[in-house]
Structure formats: C-alpha cells, structure tokens
Amino acid sequence: MPQPKSKVETLRWRDGTLEMIDQRMLPATVIYLQFDSAAAVADGIRNMVVRGAPAIGCAAAYGVALEALRLQRATPADFSAQMEFGLTALAASRPTAINLFWALARMRNAWQNLSGGAPPQIAARLLAEAHAIRAADIEANRSMGRHGAALLRDGMRVLTHCNAGALATAGHGTALGVVRSAIEIGKNISVFADETRPFLQGARLTAWELMRDDIPVTLIADNAAGFLMSRGEIDFVVVGADRIAANGDVANKIGTYSVAVLANRHRIPFYVAAPLSTIDASIARGEDIPIEERDADEILGYGAVKWAPERVKVRNPVFDITPAELVTGLITEKGVVHAPDAGKIRKLLDAA
C-alpha cells in the first residue's frame, strides 16, 4: 500500500530563517531558498517560488515574523513604520488568494495585542504565531482529508486540477489530502492529474509529489478530461480553492470552471477541498472576487522555450470562477457542505 504521509516539505523554519522549496524548479531540481525579510517573502510569493493559497498564507505569516526579527534593535517608531511597510508589501504580492490576507490579519492582531511591547518581545510573539498558523494548516488539512476520504469509494479514479497537495499547503494538502487520507485508511485510489496550463502545476508539481509518495497518478492534457469522462474513466473530481465567496462560488486556478462544467455534464461529483480561512464572507458573489492576470510570457512559452509568435496579443487570467451550483460539496476541516449556498456557508462559519 502506498505511504500516505507526504515526503514533501513546502516550507520550514531553520536557523532563524524561512526556507521554501523553489516550485519553479520542480520537478528537475529540488532546492530550498532562504528568506529573511517581509520584502523577500513578498518577492517569493509574487514570483511563484511558493504558490497555493494555504502555503501563501503560511509564508506571509513567516514574512511578518521575519520582519519583526530583523527590526529587533529598531526604535519603537522605526519598528512600527517598517512593520507597516512589510505588511503592505506582503499584501500586494498576490491579489486573489484570501489566505494571504487572512494570515496577515491574524499576524497584525497578534502584534496589536502587544501594543507598547519591546520589539524583541513582539518578534518572539509573532514567530510563535507563524508557527501556530503553520501547525493549524496541517491539522486542518488532515481533518479535511478525513472528511473527504469518506466520500471516496475503493477503486475510484480521481481527477484533480492544478496542485492542491502538500506543495500548496504547509503539509498533507487539501484536494490531495483527501486522496492521501483515503489511501491511509486502506482504499485503493488512483489520480488523473491534468497538466494545468500555462504554469503546468499539474504536470510539474502534482505528478511529482504523488510519484514521490508512491500514489498512482496518470498525467493528461487539460483538454483530455472531457474525453475520459465520456468514456467513464473518471469517477470523482476534487480541487482546491484560492477564495470562496459567501454564496459558495469558488475562485481557483484557471480551467477549474471548465472541469466543473464537464463534470456536471457527465454527472460526476465535483468537490472543492479548502479550509475555512479560504472563505471570504465579505464578498457576496464570485464575480466580485479580484482575478489576477499575470505576465504574457507565461502564455507565449515556458522558461526559455517560446512557441507563440512575437507581439501576439495575450490574456493571462490565472484564476476563474466556478458557480456554487456546479459544486457538489465543499470539504472543510469542520465537515462537508453539500450543495453550498449562502445560508449553509453562514451556518458553517457561525459554528466554527
């Protein structure tokens, strides 16, 4: 039986610095980069060293702690000014993943609760808070995994989009955590990973981490999913999320909406696995979620290889919105919400 515990460590605290695996280099090279300030972490988030909403939130929390550690000898006035600058830089790094802003709000609250404290005291408290956020993310993922595993029958073939595994979180994963947890209790589960253009998170990351964990995985082109569904070769779809609106609409990696439409057409369950921190109750509908558009170079080719003609017009939205009506259920650390809507999500958040 495959070993369900992930061998992938996305981010780690070592010798007073944050280390994050450089996901741009995978699968060819496994290398960890060191970060020692909020600005450095913001650059790492913006430049896709780390990606995945929960992992971005954890990284941002450590970015705040690193900034406080860097400023331990500053005067209180300089400390506050530079901390605000660091928080602003982190908040501007990526606009769609709500976990980023959730983590920053939690870190700010921890800082404000020590109002008047000395910089070293504040730095120690913020580092402890970052560690707590990382530990809570892993526990939430494992809880999601347990709830989601109950939905999978033995022998199911599961399609996932993008990477919502250990690489997108502090550990275990959201969508892939459901698969890992099902395998952990003895179910025979295999995965179809679509390549997820243009950044190829499915091909480069999901396939890599599942193979490292000896979980059966088959890589397919993005536009092969409908064909396999029509042939009865896919039984279940589970994806992650970067932000969920109050009515249950889901923002996730571009192409998720297409997968959801295909799953609906073929009557295949379509689930979204995400922690409560991904739900943004301040946004009523998916159409109000800010959608990041990235550089045209990501569409023109990959790395040094270019395949599109120069000067061609490019649109590169990196997320899309899946309406709640296409979502069979949300898998959260507090349980599964079937046919999500505003009332059910409000009840879920009120009970948390």
Can you put this structure into words, describing what you see?
- The protein is an alpha/beta fold and 352 residues long.
- It folds into 2 domains: 11-141, Up-down Bundle (Four Helix Bundle (Hemerythrin (Met), subunit A)); 151-351, Translation initiation factor eif-2b, domain 2 (Rossmann fold), CATH 3.40.50.10470.
- 40% of the residues lie in helices and 17% in strands.
- The chain is built from 11 helices and 16 strands.
- The protein has helices at 38-46, 53-70, 76-91, 98-112, 119-149, 175-184, 201-212, 225-230, 256-265, 297-300, 342-351, and strands at residues 11-14, 17-21, 32-35, 157-160, 190-194, 217-220, 236-239, 243-245, 250-253, 270-273, 279-280, 301-302, 305-306, 319-322, 329-332, 335-338.
- A 7-stranded mixed sheet has the order 6-5-4-7-10-15-16, with helices on both faces. A 4-stranded mixed sheet has the order 11-8-9-14, covered by helices on one side. A 3-stranded antiparallel sheet has the order 1-2-3, with helices on one face.
- α5 (119-149) crosses α6 (175-184).
- The radius of gyration is 20 Å and the shape is globular.
- The model has no long low-confidence stretch (mean pLDDT 95).
